[in-house]
Amino acid sequence: MANSKYEYVKKFEMEDKLPACNWIVVRIDGHKFHRFSDDHDFDKPNDENALNLMNSCAVSMVEQFSDIVFAYGVSDEYSFIWKETSQFYDRRASKILSLSVSYFTSMYAIKWKDFFPHKDLKDPPCFDGRIVLYPRVKIVRDYLSWRQVDCHINNQYNTCFWMLVKSGKSKKDAQELLKGTLAKDKNELLFRQFGINYDKLPDIFKKGSCVYKDTVEETLKPDDGGNTVKRQRRRVIVGHFNIIEDRFWNEHPNILKED
Amino acid sequence: MANSKYEYVKKFEMEDKLPACNWIVVRIDGHKFHRFSDDHDFDKPNDENALNLMNSCAVSMVEQFSDIVFAYGVSDEYSFIWKETSQFYDRRASKILSLSVSYFTSMYAIKWKDFFPHKDLKDPPCFDGRIVLYPRVKIVRDYLSWRQVDCHINNQYNTCFWMLVKSGKSKKDAQELLKGTLAKDKNELLFRQFGINYDKLPDIFKKGSCVYKDTVEETLKPDDGGNTVKRQRRRVIVGHFNIIEDRFWNEHPNILKED
Amino acid sequence: MANSKYEYVKKFEMEDKLPACNWIVVRIDGHKFHRFSDDHDFDKPNDENALNLMNSCAVSMVEQFSDIVFAYGVSDEYSFIWKETSQFYDRRASKILSLSVSYFTSMYAIKWKDFFPHKDLKDPPCFDGRIVLYPRVKIVRDYLSWRQVDCHINNQYNTCFWMLVKSGKSKKDAQELLKGTLAKDKNELLFRQFGINYDKLPDIFKKGSCVYKDTVEETLKPDDGGNTVKRQRRRVIVGHFNIIEDRFWNEHPNILKED
Amino acid sequence: MANSKYEYVKKFEMEDKLPACNWIVVRIDGHKFHRFSDDHDFDKPNDENALNLMNSCAVSMVEQFSDIVFAYGVSDEYSFIWKETSQFYDRRASKILSLSVSYFTSMYAIKWKDFFPHKDLKDPPCFDGRIVLYPRVKIVRDYLSWRQVDCHINNQYNTCFWMLVKSGKSKKDAQELLKGTLAKDKNELLFRQFGINYDKLPDIFKKGSCVYKDTVEETLKPDDGGNTVKRQRRRVIVGHFNIIEDRFWNEHPNILKED
């Protein structure tokens, strides 16, 4: 049985190389996570375990794919920035997209038990993904700012919404109450009605999470009591920084660097 | 904090709608499964549990995505045929690809324990995927024939190779021995040296696996002893058919039908 | 001066092969031809010389590019159907599009004098173009029907509009008068007010123009008075047929034939 | 006759918007110009009239399409750089490509008589075209350097080749003689054998042609003998500059400027 007569079907595979000199952003998004979070009784407005699970998967991604230079996550969404010069699978879009989504999903399913030891997975966690290309560092930063502002806006709204609901309002009434309110109205509502100072809420809720590799200096003390030794080591960092302002980027000039 | 100044970054998202009137094939492939199968001690040349796990994930896919009309799997690879008129997510390639790969991966990780109750997952299972479009039923069938011939060729080779290795040959010697042999040489080798009649090996090894929805007639006997009732039900079938010849397709004319 | 250090810029050229087994339609459209037809005093609603010039360019196209199997033109627009198996420049979209548009434009400028011997070209004739792919003969035919119905609708409207304008109405009044009228209203208006039987107007106006290669039988009479000889010859035909109904296609089964 | 039942064919038109923030290079190339230049007896190695005709068409392009910021031509090829922020036809690739190629071709056919008053056009001039995107000014400059180095290499070779042929060598012998020679060998050959100092040849041959808009200051002297007036005017410039070195670009900082 020869296969040659059928091999022409391979000609239908289309090339999908991403153009050079563009930062590759893979954004992963929970599929039907509204229902998923209900089914698994996630805390509202933020479930810290769920966020830590997302972050842990992102750390695995950064460790697994060496061309990812930065990741930013909020809620059930994570953006992975691949360096503009990446030659991973010859920059084939379908390889980069499918492997990113598959690896992240796999990690999420496997690590579930570590973060929810007392809950079984009831539905398969599932993520969709997309690739967006950015030709300049400035635009990558604006992309990240866009996501972080979104995080802030959503979190402020959700914090108000769920406080109202937990205090006895119906979901519909809570929605009505918040319609048209400005940021400072929401902060005031939280403070007056619930004694919550929004600025004091955990950064992981307000700012989302950043994951990246950094060089840290370690001091090693030999067992034999000899001289301590310093060495440089690459480590994956998880933090909750303001990535809209310049400060973080000035302090980490190597993360986004045009070639 | 307004987001409007950053929203221009959305303009960089490119449309990726797949053209109408084309069958959409999503082929999923185990990533680094050579190592994965070693790490988990898969039987050689075929691990029946591993194949059944793949098939079980494919069944879930067919149940989950109603536009998948047929799936064909062999080894660590599975092809899913989406009907040519599918409007799933407006035919956006990245949605179709990422959700397919993510759902399959999720299922694989979750169902692992059902098929390997005594083995822990040591590495995260990971799959890559690609989309290929076929504008005619005839070419979809040729695509499936291509995969099934491949299954046959690989299985015959692997069966010989592993019998030789298990009988004491080094992998290199086994390779040398098989170089340039024809199908009938391999069959003879199996028969003479190992008493194996290749044609008698299980179809799941020789023909791979087909998954599709079929209408079956059920006979229901009411608890109250009343008259039995017949009803039609859609059920997902797993089988190991010859999909190169016309017979299967003549018997299932609705699976691949041009609009 | 070596060029090697700059050659990396070639890597930015993206592949643009059109998928196999699809009919390639190149539709060319006059750019700013409203003004162009005013500047050159084209007859309204139809300028027969201008249409014949378009047809003559289409004939040159069909002679020049052997993979074009059919062309259909109306007003300042022409569609060229390339056979589904064409391997012209490896099916690269930019080659097919740019050469089609360039050759057509060149012909238009060169042949102008043949059709308008007493008018100089005042503006450069310019055409834009696009490629659309159709995976089935049926859809190619629907595409052509779409263009021919459009021809009919526009021609009927324009005939009424220009008769009204020529009879003294302002363009605005003519527009108002025709707003919301049905086909039969327009036919009646033409007949009652201007004594025009729409059905008797020339087919080139009502049906547009078809260009294709056909095999014709020639009878050759030798100069020496010997026996006449019959031979088959491929000739480019220009006609004004109904291409919506089956008849034309039944009579020319070789033009659109799936492989 | 309603068109609605056929309008679905429009769904097959694919979006082809070019990504934002990329310089758009449209490179136009003479199609079968080897033969075209033979048929019209172009001077070898360079026909000054033919080059001036190409340049004149490029000037028309720059005047016609206001988003073209720079054009560079050599032999029968011209590259047009569209500014990175161009919104011409919503950045649709097929519109930009087809209109560029069509307008250039039209101009070439129309202006022919101005540059070759004693020669009739024997074949239709035809150009193919392609679009390449460059995300950074630096790479646009490298692209232009690539073309100019190519101009230099080809011109030096062709000058030697045609001097040898004109002096009586066969084309094959000329080719053989030049095989493997370095730049300085060719210069020496020209000087020793033909008394030609390559560096003294016209810049239009050695460096190709640049076309761009520049602001020039005009001094107007009123007819009534009043005071002269200075005013700024945008004018299209044709020059033969070194565009590899920084000097030209430092003197014209506005041509390629990232937004």
UniProtKB/TrEMBL annotation, chains A, B, C, D:
Keywords: GTP-binding, Magnesium, Metal-binding, Nucleotide-binding, Nucleotidyltransferase, Nucleus, Transferase, tRNA processing. This is tRNA(His) guanylyltransferase. Belongs to the tRNA(His) guanylyltransferase family. Adds a GMP to the 5'-end of tRNA(His) after transcription and RNase P cleavage. Its main location: nucleus. The keyword Cytoplasm does not apply. It catalyses: a 5'-end ribonucleotide-tRNA(His) + GTP + ATP + H2O = a 5'-end phospho-guanosine-ribonucleotide-tRNA(His) + AMP + 2 diphosphate + H(+). Binds 2 magnesium ions per subunit. One of its GO terms (molecular function) is GTP binding. It comes from the Eukaryota. GTP binds at D29, G30, H31, K32, F33, H34, S75, D76. One of its GO terms (biological process) is tRNA modification. It comes from Dendrobium chrysotoxum (Orchid). Mg(2+) 2 binds at D29, D76. The lineage of its organism: Eukaryota, Viridiplantae, Streptophyta, Embryophyta, Tracheophyta. Its EC number is 2.7.7.79. It is found in: Nucleus. Its cofactor is Mg(2+). It holds the Pfam family Thg1C. Residues 139-244 form the Thg1 C-terminal domain. The keyword GTP-binding applies. Mg(2+) 1 binds at D29, G30, D76.
